[in-house]
Write a structure and sequence with these properties.
4 helices, alpha+beta, three-stranded mixed sheet, about 110 residues, 3 strands
Length: about 110
């Protein structure tokens, strides 16, 4: 079963029937770091860590799907997640109005399919 790594409570609710879900109450960048750690353990990216047109500083939520089984290190997955981490570090986090959070949770889920 694929693994969904997320900080989005709505993603936990929507995808727990089809994915193993690992929820982390942490910022966007930390989700990417957790995904990177899993890739180092032999997991492979199944969704792009910066999918969609929502920039890292425009949302607090991030959900990434990786393969559930471990194999050898996937260099493409590692390069992709490292680039995503580097790019995310270039953005200055901004305060997001509370009234936008529900929409941002839904957008994050919609990017997963």
């Amino acid at each position: 079963m694929d693994i969904l790594i997320t900080n989005n409570p709505l993603a936990v609710e929507k995808f727990s029937a089809t994915h193993q879900v690992k929820f982390f109450d942490c910022p966007f960048l930390q989700v990417l770091n957790i995904v990177r750690d899993h890739i180092h353990q032999g997991h492979k990216l199944l969704s792009h860590p910066l999918s969609g047109s929502v920039k890292p500083h425009e949302t607090p939520y991030k959900s990434v799907v990786i393969c559930g089984h471990q194999a050898t290190l996937c260099h493409l997955s590692l390069t992709t997640i490292e680039n995503a981490v580097a790019l995310t570090k270039n953005f200055v986090p901004r305060q997001i109005p509370i009234e936008h959070l529900a929409d941002l949770k839904m957008i994050d889920c919609s990017l997963l399919g």
